[in-house]
Amino acid sequence: MDYISFCRQFYATTGIPAVLYQDGHIAYSSMAELLGIQPPDDWPVYEPDRNPEFSAINPDLEYGHLRLERSGCDLFLGPIFTAPISEKLIREYFEETKTPPAYREAVAELLYGIPINSHARFVRLLHLLHLVFNGKEAKVEDFYAEDAQREANRGGRLTEASIDTKENESYRSSYDFERELYHHIQQGDTARLKRFLEETREFPAEGKLAHTPLRHAKNLLIGLASKICVLAAIPGGIDAERAYQLSDLYTLECEQMQTIEDVHRLQYVMLMDFCQRCGMAKLPEGVSSEIYRCMTFIQSHTNGAIGLDDVAAEIGRSSSYLMRRFKAELGMSVGEYITKCKLREACDLLTYGDRSLAEISAYLGYSSQSYFQNVFKKQYGMTPMQYRKQHRKAL
Q1: Could you tell me if 262 and 255 are in contact, meaning their C-beta atoms sit under 8 angstroms apart?
Q2: 77, 80, 89, 95, 326 from 100: Cα distances, Å
Q3: Nearest to residue 125, comparing CAs of 174, 55, 54, 178?
Q4: Edge-to-edge, what's the strand order for the sheet holding 18-22?
Q5: What is the DSSP string of 200-231?
Q6: DSSP character for 43?
């Protein structure tokens, strides 16, 4: 296939810029061709964690990546905007891409011409291209980093949970489920939200909301979108107007779905999208996408030993570089942030789970239970057991 011709036609059809990376250099760039310039030789390309995938400079400014497996080429799509383009978004794009001043006016004009796309629609587009070029179906979950062992064990866990539920007739209450769901979204930690969704067999049963299963599924999603907006997104730091816009957007997307499976996929994307945006809303201004990637990597690996070298390897940088950059952007060391994330997860385990202190300590990779207790008390001014009693009483 003539991939350069495809990129030209793709941009002409969708309005989304495309970049083709081949044999160690850029073979084609929509933006460069429109500007009449040569693509840069040092254009940053990193080894993808999964295929396909997407990344974001800002929750409203995303990129997609697809490895064309049969050719060894890489296809990069974007940027795409999920909100009306603003001067702030344009500035963030210029800062992240280091656009030369001489081209900024022309590039800005091109950016304003890119149509607004929803996050869910962009995920489906990557899904379609993966099927066309690589002949493979991609699950919605494949777009989000996930521990391989956890994924391998999921089937067994769900089977056991189903058997246990039937034998004991013990269904989790809708209130408890939703309370924890909204908590994870509001905190903006996608890793913990994924674990919660994996360990939950299914959403608690609801009353009949429609005469057909498809309409019932759609009504559930629409109601969930509204509640997430009020109970998680806005308290989590997302601008109220933007939160309501997203809720309306997912409602419109939902109405276009033709199968229950499509509705469930959209629901998963919606939950992760709101959660990621809450996480981004908590970031100090000036945090780069590179450091944000480090932060999400740390949040995804709290269940075990993790150190500076592991985080540096994730972004292909030296430990000394990461130490300087992390401290400059977040005002704390990598080690301090790792501890912060581990203790935050410990709080959730103490509040919502039944694991013993020894089990929590081992799960979070601490060398001993006593060390975990000392670190926890230093941070929160109380022992883990005191924290559990206080917060469970408040539930």
Answers
A1: no
A2: 21, 21, 17, 10, 25
A3: 54
A4: 25-29, 18-22, 73-81, 61-68, 53-58
A5: S-SPPP----SSSHHHHHHHHHHHHHHHHIII
A6: -
At residue 380, the pLDDT reads 94
Give the span between the Cα atoms of 385 and 387, in whole angstroms. Answer: 5
For 314-340, how does the pLDDT look when each residue is reduced to its tens digit (9 = 90+)? 888 899 999 999 999 999 999 999 999
Closest by Cα among 59, 56, 54 to 277:
59
Look up the pTM and report it: 0.58
pLDDT at position 172 is: 42
Which tokens in the block code for residue 249?
A: 């957007």
CB–CB of 335/311 below 8 Å? no
pLDDT digits (tens, 9 = 90+) for 126-182: 989 999 999 988 776 666 654 444 433 433 433 343 334 434 444 445 777 888 899
| Contact between residue 14 and residue 75 where contact means Cβ atoms under 8 Å apart | no
Question: Which of the residues in the chain have pLDDT under 50?
Answer: 146-172
DSSP 74: E
Q: What distance in Å separates the CA atoms of residue 164 and residue 159, rounded to the nearest whole number?
A: 9
**What is the CB-side half-sphere exposure of residue 126 using CA atoms within 13 A?**
31
Cβ contact 189:181 at 8 Å: no
Q: Are 296 and 53 in contact (CB under 8 A)?
A: no
